[in-house]
């Protein structure tokens, strides 16, 4: 992590600790914590970190924004900070200023279709859009040969179905048929690049959440006494914690490798796909395995509403499907390597 990334993450984590502490949120029994948290994030400028300075943002690099995504995962953050970061980045590529407030994104692809004609008429349908029912703006990325078109619409211009993910956060189907007043072309952007960044954000969030549940599990194993000694002294528990530590290490390593790849524009397309797909696949698998181990270590208390473990495990399990599940990315990897030889695959695997 660079010095600038470290400074941004440190500042973000202080805000998360003060205003989004999972135990305090559970004890409050309401969502009153969200407005003060967002006000503080907005005052710091984090939601606009990827927006160019010329458009009112801070123009931070790819590495800084991705580092914030991992920190948000460590806090099990239940506000659309990462989505707003992505929306600002996409809008900025088209020279558009992101409106004040929260935002989310729709990227044309497997779960979404979007058409934007030259008059500004926008027609789009999308399934499973994070926080769509709660944000102020939605940024839509539509394919348009020979380039990419970007439109920004308000939530009120959309028809949004009620829905939520495993953790209870808004996850909605969206239909749009409206005139987009704010629109533009993004010649330096592609649907693939946008999807890569979004998927890597989710991989980093999962990796961050896994780090948090490892700390929770180890701490609980040291404190919980059974048969006269901490359960962390029992070999079976130690073995589970070692397995959890291995899953966390693998997820962090592969997610950070994907983030580093996206931070370098000169990486070949095949290598980028390998890194991003591998991260989404491995982090998704680690989320499933890690959640099972953590709940086994903590036992019944980890399943209660009063304990914070579920805020992490349910969110990282939900994040697995956002911007492509393991199966989707595995299929894309298979399609990429199938035409080549074993030597080609080995060269690809050892290139970085």
What do you see in this structure?
The chain has eleven helices and ten strands. With 352 residues, the protein is of the alpha+beta class. The chain folds into three domains: 1-77, Orthogonal Bundle (Butyryl-Coa Dehydrogenase, subunit A, domain 1); 101-188, Butyryl-CoA Dehydrogenase, subunit A, domain 2 (Beta Barrel); 191-349, Butyryl-CoA Dehydrogenase, subunit A, domain 3. It has a four-stranded mixed beta sheet, with helices on one face. A hairpin with a 2-residue loop joins β9 (225-226) and β10 (229-230). The relative contact order is 0.11.
| Main sheet strand line-up | 1-4-5-8
Kindly report the CATH topology of the largest domain: Butyryl-CoA Dehydrogenase, subunit A, domain 3
CATH class term of the largest domain: Mainly Alpha
**Average pLDDT reading:** 93
N-to-C series of helices and strands: HHHHHEEEEEEEEHEEHHHHH
CATH architecture of the largest domain: Up-down Bundle
Query: Largest sheet, if any?
Result: 4 strands, mixed
Give the C-alpha Rg. Answer: 21 Å
Shape designation: globular
Superfamily at the CATH H level of the largest domain? Butyryl-CoA Dehydrogenase, subunit A, domain 3
Helix content: 40-55%
Q: Extract low-pLDDT stretches.
A: none
Structural class: alpha+beta
β-sheet strand percentage: 15-25%
Number of helices: 11
Terminal Cα span: 18 Å
Itemize the secondary structure elements and their pairings.
Elements: H1 3-19, H2 22-28, H3 34-44, H4 62-74, H5 81-93, E1 103-107, E2 112-116, E3 121-130, E4 137-144, E5 147-154, E6 158-160, E7 171-179, E8 182-185, H6 191-223, E9 225-226, E10 229-230, H7 235-262, H8 269-298, H9 309-319, H10 326-337, H11 342-349
Parallel strand pairs: 1-4
Antiparallel strand pairs: 2-3, 3-7, 4-5, 5-8, 6-7, 9-10
Helix pairs in contact: 1-3, 1-4, 4-6, 5-6, 6-7, 6-8, 6-9, 7-8, 8-9, 8-10
């Amino acid at each position: 992590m660079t010095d600038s990334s470290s400074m941004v993450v440190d500042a973000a984590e202080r805000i998360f600790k003060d205003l989004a502490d999972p135990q305090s949120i559970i004890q409050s029994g309401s969502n009153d914590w969200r407005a003060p948290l967002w006000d503080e994030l907005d005052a710091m400028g984090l939601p606009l970190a990827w927006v160019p300075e010329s458009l009112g943002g801070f123009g931070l690099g790819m590495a800084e924004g991705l580092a914030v995504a991992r920190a948000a995962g460590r806090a099990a953050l239940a506000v659309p900070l990462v989505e707003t970061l992505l929306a600002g980045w996409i809008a900025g590529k088209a020279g558009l200023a992101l409106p004040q407030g929260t935002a989310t994104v729709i990227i044309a692809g497997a779960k979404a279709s979007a058409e934007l004609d030259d008059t500004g008429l926008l027609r789009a349908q999308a399934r499973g859009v994070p926080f769509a029912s709660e944000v102020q703006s939605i940024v839509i990325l539509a394919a348009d040969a020979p380039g990419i078109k970007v439109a920004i619409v308000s939530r009120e211009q959309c028809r949004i179905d009620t829905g939520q993910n495993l953790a209870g956060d808004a996850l909605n189907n969206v239909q749009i048929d409206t005139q987009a007043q704010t629109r533009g072309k993004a010649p330096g952007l592609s649907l693939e690049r946008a999807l890569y960044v979004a998927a890597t954000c989710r991989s980093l969030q999962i990796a961050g959440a896994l780090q948090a549940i490892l700390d929770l599990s180890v701490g609980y194993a040291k404190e919980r006494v059974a048969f006269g000694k901490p359960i962390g002294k029992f070999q079976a528990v130690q073995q589970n914690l070692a397995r959890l530590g291995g899953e966390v290490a693998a997820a962090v390593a592969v997610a950070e490798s994907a983030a580093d790849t996206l931070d370098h524009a000169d990486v070949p397309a095949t290598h980028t796909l390998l890194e991003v797909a591998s991260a989404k696949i491995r982090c998704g698998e680690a989320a499933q395995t890690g959640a099972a181990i953590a709940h086994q270590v903590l036992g019944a208390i980890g399943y209660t509403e009063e304990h914070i473990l579920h805020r992490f495990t349910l969110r990282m399990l939900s994040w697995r499907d956002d911007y492509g599940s393991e199966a989707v990315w595995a299929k894309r990897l298979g399609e990429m390597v199938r035409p080549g030889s074993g030597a080609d695959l080995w060269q690809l695997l050892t290139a970085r």
